[in-house]
Write a structure and sequence with these properties.
The chain is α/β, with parallel strands linked by helices. The chain has a single domain, classed as Rossmann fold. The chain is built from six helices and six strands. A six-stranded parallel β-sheet has the order 1-6-5-2-3-4, sandwiched between helices. The two termini are about 20 Å apart. About 40% of the residues are buried. The structure holds magnesium ion (MG).
């Protein structure tokens, strides 16, 4: 199912040792806006830096693949100490393929983490990797975003009844 994530969580901080072990995940492809940081904010959300260090401690690698510009993605990825792909073109596979290459892991051990069903979840599913949907830190106010939320809410209601929710 194109729009159905493997796991649906409140936010990235809930990705812990138990979950990574359960799904045999050794690398994460991370969306940036509303996944690691509020849209447009130069800083990561509270707890994200510590969460990434904990991941490193577990031997889990991470890379950012964002559809946003390098100007937006680079400073934050560098501050977090992880590689990045800008202009990721999700849901198309090109950026995700680059991300997996940067991780140096087989696709089967990689999960994509993001807040958007139509770009992140659909992209990960099209590319054939596990997907972890997180709820956005901040619901955007622009009409285009509001329309997307409406579509996503409809998808949630229809397809997510049996989904693992923690
Ligand atoms: Mg996002």
């Amino acid at each position: 199912m194109l729009f159905k994530p493997t796991v649906w969580l409140k936010n990235v901080l809930q990705i812990d040792k138990k979950l990574l072990f359960k799904y045999k995940i050794k690398g994460l492809i991370l969306d940036l806006d509303n996944t690691l940081s509020t849209h447009g904010s130069p800083a990561a959300e509270f707890g994200v830096t510590e969460w990434l260090s904990a991941l490193r401690g577990l031997g889990v690698k991470a890379v950012v693949v964002s559809n946003n510009t390098a100007k937006r993605v680079k400073p934050l990825a560098e501050e977090l100490g992880i590689g990045f792909v800008a202009f990721g073109c999700k849901p198309l596979p090109f950026g995700l393929r680059k991300g997996v290459k940067l991780l140096g892991l087989p696709k089967s051990r990689v999960a994509l983490v993001g807040d958007q069903i139509l770009t992140d979840v659909a992209g990960g599913n099209l590319y054939g990797i596990k997907t972890i949907l997180v709820e956005p830190f901040y619901l955007e106010d622009k009409p285009s975003f509001r329309l997307r939320r409406k579509i996503e809410s409809a998808v949630f209601k229809r397809d997510f009844s049996k989904l693992e929710k923690r």
